[in-house]
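Usage example:
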Amino acid sequence: MEFHRHDVVIVGAGLAGLFAGLYTSREFDTAVVSKVYPIRSHSGAAQGGCAASLGNMMEDRWEWHMYDTVRGSDYLGDQDAQEIVCREAPLVIYECEHLGVPFSRTPEGKISQRPFGGHFSDFGKGPQKRACHAADRTGHVQLHTLYETCVKQDVRFYSEFFTLQLIFAENGACRGIVAWDLRRGGMHVFHAKAVLLATGGYARAWKVTSNSHANTGDGLSLVLRSGLPLEDMEFVQFHPTGLYPSGILVTEGARGEGGYLLNDKAERFMERYAPQKMELAPRDVVSRSIQTEIDEGRGIGGKNFVHLDVRHLGEAKIMEALPQIHELALKFTGVDCLKEPIPILPTAHYSMGGIPTNTQTQVLKNSAGDIVEGLFAAGECACVSTHGANRLGTNSTLECCVFGRRAGISMLKYLREDPCLPDLPQDAADQSIERVEGLLESKGSESAAQIREILQSTMTEKMGIFRREETMKECLAKIKELQERYKKIGLQDRGRVFNTELMEAIELGSMLDFVEPIVVGAIARKESRGAHFRKDYPKRDDQNWLKHTLAWKEGDSIRLDFKPVVITRFQPEERKY
Amino acid sequence: MIRTFRIFRFDPEKDQEPSYREYQVECPKGSTVLDALNEIKWRQDGTLSYRRSCRHGICGSCAMTINGKNNLACESQVETLKGVIWVEPLRSFPIIKDLIVDMEPFYERLKAVKPYFIAGTPPTDKERLQSPEQRKLLDGSYECILCGCCTSSCPSYWADKDFLGPAALLKAYRFVFDSRDEGTQERLVILDNKHGLWRCHTIFNCAEACPKGLNPTWAIGKLKQKVIREKF
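Running the assembly step on the lines above writes:
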């Protein structure tokens, strides 16, 4: 066992984690622990853009951005957090530019902006050009630039270290983490004054997903197993345009630039569902429309996909604004989008829920807003809640930047006030050692790969875009069964050096943890709101359900509690597009 | 269709020498080499080790040597590969286990070129201006995903392990030709030596290997011109 001591330990090296590290490393010794190399983080896959009301192409105001975000969230977002995101958006975009992000430019040399779904001018009127972008590689350039700047500032990276456990002092404060060194094998204890969880998204629990293999929600599992709650887990966003059949993402920028959605009869079917906004309606609306076309037999050739057509944009426009889409469609479906429409289907994409935090990114332990000292969370693994029941495109990289930055500032403040580091508990790593050794020595007959496959198919079939009580209960029963089977898994690889089978088994354990609150929360929420759509309760119910769900794992079951939504500027109204 | 994969295997905890093991894999139309590796790991042999993450060519984790060429496993369509499919680790990188190589030396070379934005002039509270023409100079360099395919395929790197290599030099280009960057002088000192720019013999293997279609040799040529112009 090895011990390390740092002022700050950040788990996860995507946009949120690196933005935070950028700030803390200016004054304090900062370590970033990540199970992949930092630039492999899934933030790099973000394509279309990062929203900010710069007004570079047309007039824009942060209040308009906030209105779109509030309405997009189906009024479940906390408006204090939404105001912060929209107000601070221009600031973080300029900061990214100052760090060197190579944004695309306007003829005047300013940062280029383009339209995206759900973004409008003047409180919901016309389309708005708000997405700052670098062609369709926005996440890639932001991630690489932040990594480069962290290298410049001597942030200490522990790459390919898998975090297994949070360490708490007797007073309940978080004082570090335990991680397994994937490359060399062996347990490491990281003793720290402040810990940030920035472990990203977790849509790998679904079979059809835009997420990378690494997006298995390990950070959420750390929190659940520490006896802390998760918030609003039932809200999972399906991106309308995943490549058929894998679910690999085709950016909303493709529709932003003018792409059409067509069914088997070559109809622009969005006319039926969102006549005003058409393909640029918010994601939940477009995903449901596509799924309805498929369910009613109007998928292409009766199959479960429709077409995204960009041919009319012309070669020059496609190659300038959507080069990666051209490449992805060609490499993964064999379709040249200059000549043919792209086959697409909705894909599990983004998770609005996560680790509850306040706007200072401090992790909350109950509905009263009490914080866990020393523990912070930011980015997709956190729920602050910016996105409420449905996230607008380009607000995700934005959230990571804004709240990653705020996490950095928040930790700076905390460390300046309380610079002492209490002793670690003697048995800090015992639980993790037992877990890893148990997996390595297990003689069980169950296969982690097989259990994962069943879990992913079950989630795609029963926890998809449209939900019903009966199928969700079947889903929960299946999860319970898989949790039992998981106790009996056995590995073929018993080595310690780069045991990726061990890693996948631990990841499966994370997924089996956090899917339960998703299903339990969804069964409890008897309404339809944003991405959570129930065929048996198709209406939004503000009277009973304008509230956040908190879920704890207690023994073998999930306990729920609720807390009110913060409403400041905009009162709930019906969403029409 | 069932295809044969001959895969490089080495477990440092068990093996003195590496060996090759064959696997038969059912590969439906559209399968990539990564799909096949997953199929083997998940259904046939859990000990097979390789890196992977995004599975759509943006994270760079699954770079390896496939039928003698460096590529991303996730982007290599099985259909386009003939005969028995040989899968080996990246060349000239130290091997950790099976297809997993040590990327540290690669990152060390990257760090050597000061791979970050350098600007002493304090920015305003808005963006710095950069014309579309100035921005266009970065096309073909900023897209690099640091997978290592280029460096692994570079004969100059095989011969000289102190050579910075195409990926690090392409990154240097990305900053040297950024109109906003002010670090050119400090970087040129690092680039202008026998393990830097001048070790590149314009072989173009890197350009052939790059899964993103980038051309580090061309960028190195531009940097060489820049050095010569600055000197004389």
